[in-house]
Amino acid sequence: MRLLLVEDSPRLTELINETMHDAGWRLDGVSTLRDAEAAIAAREHDLVLLDLGLPDGDGLQLLQWIRREHVGLPVLIITARGSVDERIAGLDAGADDYLVKPFHHRELLSRCRAMLRRNPNAIQPVLEAGALRYDPATAELTCEGAVLPLPPRERSLIEILLREVGRVVPKRRLETALSEYGQELSSNALELAVSRVRKRLQSAETGVQIETVRGIGYLLRRV
């Protein structure tokens, strides 16, 4: 799952980023309406977390634009505006849910999961190859029922390779998918992530392995 956070508080952005990474989700963070429009146009996000008080305008403007240009994209408003009239205005403008600051990170995760379940475009099947099983809804990777713990970046990597099992995934695609918005992943960082996942798969006897296709990318194949 890939989420976009539109929030101008660096501290809150940092906290939400930690929460989402611990849950196995990728999070892109921007702080202005302009950057948010560019991020939504450039990437496919499963959910937008939207603050309303932004430096270059009201978040409701972005919400109205999303409803015109990206109709099915779920939006969760996160804001300090907590009056009944303000909540009604946000929901009437097209928000799928509304969460008032301050909130607990567990409630934020629960709201996100509920919204993603209601969005048919975000429902993703369990991925399997060899003895490996990955559930995108929970970001849990298992081998014959035993959990294989991996950091968020490595979990995202194996998810992409599982979706394309038996096919070569270009390096550039992986670098883009595993990068943070505005902070590209280097080739060396990708190679390190691949090396770590490869060793983990080998030690767990998963029945699959990652192969390097020189000059092109990587593929996951059954052995």
UniProtKB/TrEMBL annotation:
GO molecular function annotation: phosphorelay response regulator activity; transcription cis-regulatory region binding
Annotated GO CC locations: cytosol; protein-DNA complex
Residues modified to 4-aspartylphosphate: 51
Pfam families per record: Response_reg, Trans_reg_C
Cross-referenced InterPro entries: CheY-like_superfamily, OmpR/PhoB-type_DNA-bd, Sig_transdc_resp-reg_C-effctor, Sig_transdc_resp-reg_receiver, WalR-like, WH-like_DNA-bd_sf
Xref: SUPFAM superfamilies: C-terminal effector domain of the bipartite response regulators, CheY-like
Keywords: DNA-binding, Phosphoprotein
Chain residues forming the annotated DNA-binding region: 124-222
Every Response regulatory domain range: 2-116
Protein name: DNA-binding response regulator
